[in-house]
Design a protein that fits this description.
Blueprint (H helix, E strand, L loop, with lengths): L6 H25 L12 H20 L5 H40 L6 H4 L2 H28 L9
């Protein structure tokens, strides 16, 4: 089965792993202490889980040994999965950035009067975690987009 996987399939699996890592980082940021504790983004967890499922489903469908109409249907569904996953990750990243930008500005760019009260170790850690999660999600998005343009199965000789 692994011998049938192309470089595109491996990139897709890597993208799924990066999306999983970004989901874990987001969950740690929301549950950890600091400024973003308890400030979850609506539907973000659902979208990221769906993106992981779509990425893995795309690979699984292409690796099945199907013939005829079933193979054509599997190719179409796999292609739709490869398109849907980056859309969900992009939507998640946009919503995460828009929900965190004000807090990050407050933590890092407050005026001198309140900076000592705002820049506590917990708030700085929370801000750094949010930024790191966004970066990993951005890298996952790039991998998802690249994977969408790659074939998932090696050509049979």
């Amino acid at each position: 089965m692994l011998k049938k996987m192309s470089a595109g399939a491996w990139i897709t699996v890597l993208a799924a792993l990066l999306v999983l890592v970004s989901l874990i980082m987001y969950s740690a940021n929301v549950s950890g202490e600091g400024y973003f504790q308890g400030r979850s983004v609506s539907n973000l967890t659902l979208w990221l889980i769906l993106a992981i499922v779509l990425l893995l489903a795309a690979v699984a469908l292409k690796l099945l040994s199907l013939k005829g109409t079933a193979a054509t249907c599997a190719d179409v569904v796999s292609g739709l999965c490869q398109i849907g996953a980056p859309v969900l990750v992009a939507l998640s990243l946009i919503n995460l950035i828009s929900s965190r930008v004000e807090g990050l500005g407050f933590i890092y760019f407050s005026n001198a009067d309140v900076i000592k009260e705002v820049q506590t170790p917990a708030n700085l850690a929370s801000g750094s975690g949010a930024i790191a999660g966004m970066v990993v999600m951005g890298v996952a998005l790039v991998c998802c987009i690249v994977a969408a343009f790659c074939g998932l199965r090696k050509k049979e000789k």
